[in-house]
Design goal:
heterodimer; A: 287 residues; mainly alpha; ABC transporter involved in vitamin B12 uptake, BtuC; two-stranded antiparallel sheet; 11 helices; 3% strand; B: 407 residues; alpha/beta; Rossmann fold; 7-stranded mixed sheet; 5-stranded parallel sheet; 19% strand
């Protein structure tokens, strides 16, 4: 039973990582606290709901293609948002950046209400994905396995890009010291734009997966952004691998917490966040 | 800055003038304040209530209104938050000078508004909110319940579970007022009806939580005969959707709250054989008035069906109008006397209000889901209509609860 819960928690954790990875990446490079991340996620979910019937409906291939396509669409929206608005406030005070991303949250939410209404919507899973791999007591739902696979793929590709490509070197350098990168003659604006687009893409596909996993409505943005921030803060703002471990930890704490303290599992997660923050600030001040 | 002040002041003055010219333009008639979750967690439920209440409003007004004038509804959004709800309720009473209040959707918001209705002596008609605490524990002469409350619903569910002979039960209740109270009442009533039954585990997902997989595995680990899920909207939807891959319905039975909007949004994702309960399922109503209303609603809204909240919202409007007409005024005491002395022809059949706790004998509906040829989504079939008279708590229980609440 404990094993079942741990595995379930890990699967939930990988999905949380998928949600949080884009957020932490964007913060790491551009220091933008992107509240709109949850909104991009929600857009991914609603767009997938909208377009999946048009692309080979009912087949896994068509389904994944629509998610991918929606990821690209959301990435384009993110790109436009970065180019038109966000770019102008990188050097403004942080409050301006917060206000701008919050404005995006409100706009996306109202547009969602306008286009899709207040009702819950959901994407019916293709039959091929709605089963489970059964091993004794253990049910591993096919669709969740698919989400885990995508999470791992994202992790591996981000790692590979960061580690082996020139873009990755620039990104890592930008995370460490933005000024230095600029002094080397690299155009920071391009780096920021690229990262924001990739982050939005990740939010979009995560939302696409959610559309077939749960019931989606216009409040999804708020739920998701809180979870994503918890993961990103525990993992260390801007730290991709930290986010991975934080996401897995949050998933496992939640699912095990249900067994022993069903009402307290979220409290434990918030405590974990508080302890991490406290520990970091103590280490920073050297006390 | 200067410019904006220069233009701002006259503009504000002009707006005020227009506002006050439009405000008290009517003399006769009745002003109803609707305060409820138009947005927030209740957003997906209540828009149908609003559409239905507007239909009722039009019908009543075109038939001559009440008390010599039209019914006017002032809409306010509680955003499904207790503090926002009480702010709006107070403002409706003090600024809009409404004669009575209705709404509410969330039980927590209902509990927040209830003392305000009491304080100002403005009748509050709960159309779409389930807690019994507002009318019993903290009941007062001005609060009226027109749908089955948690005590009634919990008892109806316990009777259903006892009849089915389910023994090992896992409860999954949303961690707020409605979820907690319904689980408690269900547990207590079931213990009386079937002493062999036991609750092996209680789980408490939060409102808004939609990844329920670890709750599902934890519940199934007990190999229960029944998972009793006191959840609604996206919670119920996600539970059913995610439960599929775990063979939830093959491994146990599921009893959960399934009002019509869940069927509409999940469609064929709801498998046959889920035990569901509801408060106003249009497809199970047999009164002629109900069929006429559904047709009218569909004609006005692109063929969309009304959900449970629409049925309840329509009913409350006619309950209010009928009682006002009989009372002959908006005086709360006269209104209450009229309410207690009448039988109301509602979409859910003939209903009466008793005066010890101002509660209607509203029926609960429990059935089993099935995809039929009649609708584009599954509905409950073999619906048990459990009359409110069987589930209303007796007077000693009411008194005991009130005493306990004082302590």
């Amino acid at each position: 039973m404990i094993i079942v819960q741990v595995l379930q928690g890990l699967m939930e954790g990988v999905f949380l990582f998928l949600i949080a990875s884009g957020l932490t990446l964007i913060f790491g490079v551009s220091r933008i606290v992107n509240f709109a991340h949850g909104s991009f996620y929600m857009l991914g979910a609603f767009l997938t709901y909208q377009i999946h019937p048009w692309i080979a409906a009912g087949t896994p291939g068509g389904f994944f293609t629509s998610i991918l396509l929606c990821g690209v669409l959301v990435a384009l929206i993110g790109l436009a948002f970065e180019l038109v608005f966000l770019r102008r406030v990188y050097h403004a005070e942080e409050l301006m950046q917060l206000v701008l991303t919050l404005a995006a949250v409100l706009i996306v939410r109202d547009l969602t209400k306008f286009f899709w209404g207040l009702d819950d919507v959901t994407v019916v899973l293709p039959d091929a994905l709605s089963g489970a791999v059964i091993m004794g007591d253990l049910f591993l739902p096919t669709y969740q396995l698919a989400m885990v696979t995508v999470g791992v793929l994202v992790l591996v590709s981000l790692w590979a890009v960061l580690k082996f490509t020139r873009a990755g070197i620039v990104l890592r350098a930008a995370t460490d010291d933005r000024g230095m990168v600029a002094l080397l003659g690299i155009n920071q604006a391009h780096v920021f734009t690229a990262v924001f687009t990739v982050g939005s893409f990740l939010a979009g596909i995560a939302g696409g997966f959610a559309a077939a996993f749960e019931s989606v409505n216009y409040l999804l943005d708020a739920r998701v952004i809180v979870l994503a921030f918890i993961v990103v803060v525990i993992g260390g703002l801007g730290n991709l691998y930290g986010a991975l471990f934080a996401a897995l930890g949050v998933g496992v704490v939640k699912s095990l917490g249900l067994l022993w303290a069903p009402r307290l599992s979220m409290v434990v997660i918030f405590l974990l966040m508080a302890v991490v923050l406290l520990f970091r600030s103590l280490r920073r001040t050297g006390e | 800055m200067k410019t904006s002040i220069r233009f701002g002041v006259p503009l504000a003055a002009a707006l005020l003038a227009i506002g006050s010219a439009l405000g008290p333009a009517y003399a006769a008639g009745v002003k109803i304040g609707y305060v409820g979750g138009i947005s927030g967690a209740c957003g997906g439920l209540t828009h149908s209530a609003r559409k239905a209440m507007e239909i009722a409003q039009d019908e009543i007004n075109s038939a001559g209104g009440v008390l010599g004038g039209p019914i006017e509804i002032v809409w306010r959004d509680s955003k499904t938050k207790p503090d926002e709800g009480s702010k709006q309720a107070r403002d409706l009473i003090l600024s809009e000078k409404v004669d009575l209040l209705t709404g509410v959707c969330s039980s927590s918001v209902f509990m927040a508004i209830n003392p305000i209705a009491k304080q100002y002596g403005v009748p509050l008609f709960s159309a779409i909110s389930g807690t019994h605490k507002a009318t019993i524990d903290f009941g007062h002469p001005f609060v009226v319940q027109t749908q089955p409350h948690t005590l009634m619903e919990g008892k109806a569910l316990a009777e259903y579970a006892a009849r089915k002979g389910w023994k090992n039960i896992v409860t999954m209740g949303l961690d707020y007022e409605w979820g907690r109270t319904t689980v408690k009442v269900f547990t207590e009533e079931l213990a009386k009806l079937n002493p062999d039954a036991k609750i092996t585990r209680q789980l408490w997902p939060r409102i808004g939580e939609t990844n329920l997989t670890s709750y599902i595995t934890a519940a199934l680990a007990d190999e229960p005969d029944l998972i009793m899920a006191v959840m609604f909207g996206s919670g119920t939807n996600s539970l059913i959707k995610q439960g599929k891959a775990y063979g939830l319905l093959q491994r146990t039975e599921l009893l959960t709250f399934l009002s019509t909007e869940s069927y509409m949004s999940l469609g064929r994702d709801i498998p046959d054989g889920v035990h569901g309960w509801a408060r106003g399922p249009f497809y199970a109503l047999t009164a002629d008035a109900a069929r006429e209303f559904v047709a009218k609603y569909q004609a006005a809204h692109d063929g969309e069906y009304p959900n449970d909240w629409g049925i309840l919202g329509y009913d409350v409007m006619y309950i209010i109008a009928g009682a006002l007409e009989k009372a002959g005024s908006t005086d709360p005491a006269a209104l209450r006397e009229a309410l207690g002395a009448m039988a109301f022809d509602t979409l859910r059949g003939e209903l009466r209000m008793r005066t010890i706790d101002n509660t209607f004998n509203a029926p609960s509906f429990i059935g089993v889901t099935r995809m039929t040829d009649d609708y584009p989504f599954p509905v409950m079939t073999d619906v048990n209509v459990i009359p409110g008279d069987l589930t209303l708590p007796d007077e000693t229980t009411v008194q005991a609860l009130r005493e306990a609440a004082k302590g």
